[in-house]
What we know:
CATH class: Alpha Beta
Number of domains: 1
Number of helices: 1
Largest sheet: 6 strands, antiparallel
Amino acid sequence: MEYYCTGSKIVLRLDKGEEILATLTLFCQQHNIKLATVTGIGAINKASIGVFMQDTKEYHSTELTGNMEITSLMGNISQKEGEVYLHLHINLADETYQVRGGHLNAAWVGATGELVMDIIDGQVEREYSTEIGLNLMKFVSESA
């Protein structure tokens, strides 16, 4: 991976073989990034994506392999219990131009990944909601 910083933006190039979530998590840890948005495109050859079943509060995941273009990757970076928490969604087009998408569990770069992070000042925590079944953003108001 290589990157370029300008203002609040970081442009990253992920290289063949890198796993997107692991690479971003490590980058955020190394650069003390606590809150940001992420967008991206690229080409991958293996992914795991999921869909949250609201009625059962469970994720259903599927594995995808082959030549795929990232037609859209977007999400955010926050914190959960002081650790980097990535929440990313992805759309992937295969060789027949069929698109599948969902919550990104993992994806390995097959050719290149081009991501842009927009750093946001501050920090947002995540907290598990038993009612919803997800780690929701938790906003703590600062008292004067």
